[in-house]
Design goal:
The protein is of the alpha/beta class. The protein has one domain: TIM Barrel (Alpha-Beta Barrel). It is built from 12 helices and 12 strands. It has a 12-stranded mixed sheet with strand order 7-8-9-6-5-4-3-2-1-10-11-12. The longest helix is centred in the middle third of the chain and has 14 residues. The chain starts with 17 loop residues before the first strand and ends with a helix. The structure holds S-adenosylmethionine and iron/sulfur cluster (SF4).
Amino acid sequence: MIPLPLALSDSFGRRIEYLRISLTDRCNLRCVYCMPEEGVPYENLDNVLSFEEIERVVRALASVGLKKVRLTGGEPLVRKNVPELAARLVAIPGIREVTLTTNGILLARDAQALWEAGVRRLNLSMDTLQPERFIKLARRAEFERAWDGLETALAVGFSPIKLNCVLMRGINDDEIEAFGQLTKDRPLSVRFLEYMPIGQVSSAQWRAHYVKNEDAVAQLKALWPDLETLDDAPESTSRNFKIPGARGTIGVINPISHKFCEGCNRLRLTANGKLVPCLADNYEYDLMGPLRASCSAQEIREHAAAALAHKPIQSDFEGRLARGGSLRTMSQIGG
Ligand code: SAM
Ligand code: SF4
């Protein structure tokens, strides 16, 4: 008999405490860096994990050290009753935090219910503050609804709200100052994310729009010479700064230029039940089959351990690009 692992870890001894769960591969936007304009074929709904199956996975892994769950997608809020799922996950012993990443379009509807479910932190994706540009970037005229979602979430009390902006050269890299200004009077943690080559993107297309986050930091320091550098937690994936006197902060997340793999504690679960140990690697491990065959909690833990044996020591987005690129879009993996 395989001994019960006390803590979920990978072959390099990294403890796995954080599961990012994609609730759906569907989305109400078509962001240029994530999905093609025509969308991607959606998974048949029969092949999408049910809330019960998600709860079984989280419960099984919480007994071996899983502490944090992020609900994502696709757009997680296009799925019905997400606050109900969040409440069920919050109640699982060992789970300290359930968070959500959303594009904000349906957040005004769900913010209060998510708060009541016990969700306290949100990541909201917002790549431009210009409604016209939003149409080009997200291919839908939804800026106002996303902004309304953000304002509602602030009013409900979520704090800090992390506002994620994927910087792309020639598309939105002239908005660094405007995003910085936002942090002056709102408790927002604006974070500039490096554009990652995921989905149907060629090396040339990716390189044409990739902005190294050092460039963003240099611009921020030129704009605000007295920019304060904050002390980040050792496991933090972002480097954070503050404009003196501002209510919020500005951060950069550098998955490409500064890999943060050494302290990586994450595992992903796609909407169709595949475990993905690394975003930069096409390897995935099927958990749906065992779940549908009524596997035990111990078997779920063993499948997770088997998937984690394939977690690479370091991400290699460029190596994957050279080998033909990623098989899935970000919306299909779960960001
Ligand atoms: N629909 C939700 C949203 O947009 O917040 C959740 C899913 S989305 C895939 C999660 C995050 O991945 C978003 O913050 C999005 O900006 C980011 N993302 C998607 N494709 C990306 C890419 N190619 N490079 C960097 N970040 C990306
Ligand atoms: Fe949808 Fe999020 Fe991808 Fe944009 S980034 S297309 S909102 S899943």
